[in-house]
Amino acid sequence: MSSTKKKTQPTKPKRRSPITRAEGERRLISAATELIQTRPYSDVGVRDIAELADVNHGFVHTWFGSKNDLLLAVVRKQFEELADQVRMAEPGQPALNFYDPRVVSVVRLVLWLDLEGVDTGNLFKDMPILDALTARFISIEKIDPSIARAAAIQAISIGLGAGTFAPILGMESADDAVPIMDLWRHVVGLLSKYPPA
Predict the structure, then answer these.
(1) What integer is the mean pLDDT of 128-153?
(2) Is the model's pLDDT at 156 over the cut of 60?
(3) Looking at residue 12, what is its pLDDT?
(4) At what angle do helices 145-164 and 101-115 cross, to 10 degrees?
């Protein structure tokens, strides 16, 4: 009998285990969030995101449509997390820290997407942060419900402007924004006592 050696087959790359769409989307959003914290948005590619998420890059297009649509999903997720922060803030304490790196990051991402020509208007139609702040102004600050949403829009505008453009405005740290936010808290107090006619 002759002995024959079995030829060894080259090993194939390990296949990713199947995941659900919900898990894949969660991984892609998480990976994109992580990558945009450390690199310019334009340098973060679909393949980079998919590799970090351990998801086939084709699913970015299948599940989201494009990289920019995935980044819109990142914005929505961060809005939800920030809304939770607003809901959990203690009365008398600021509901949001506009110097929080997550806040600065999401604002800059929205601005970048807008400059890229992405329709960002839908982000603000159903904005959980705005809803949470409006509810807080009504329940905690006792602002008349008819003006609470406008007051929340003003608060977000002031905070985002201060946080986003702090270097241009000469504000070096969160402490530099304290007088601005204290002034706004004073205005909120006045709105609760003297609602506009």
Answers:
(1) 91
(2) yes
(3) 47
(4) 90
Residue 4 lies in a domain: no
pLDDT digits (tens, 9 = 90+) for 53-89: 999 999 999 999 999 999 999 999 998 998 999 999 8
Same domain, 43 and 123: no
Q: Contact, 71 vs 140, CB < 8 A?
A: no
Tell me what pLDDT residue 31 has. Answer: 96
- DSSP letter string, 111-132: HHHHHTT---GGGGTT-HHHHH
Q: What is the mean pLDDT of residues 130-158?
A: 90
Is 2:40 a contact under the CB 8 Å cutoff?
Answer: no
Q: Which of 65, 87, 102 is the last residue of a domain?
A: 65
Q: What is the domain range of residue 57?
A: 18-65
What is the length of the chain?
197
Scan for tokens 């969030």, then name that residue.
33
Element (H, E) at 111: helix 101-115
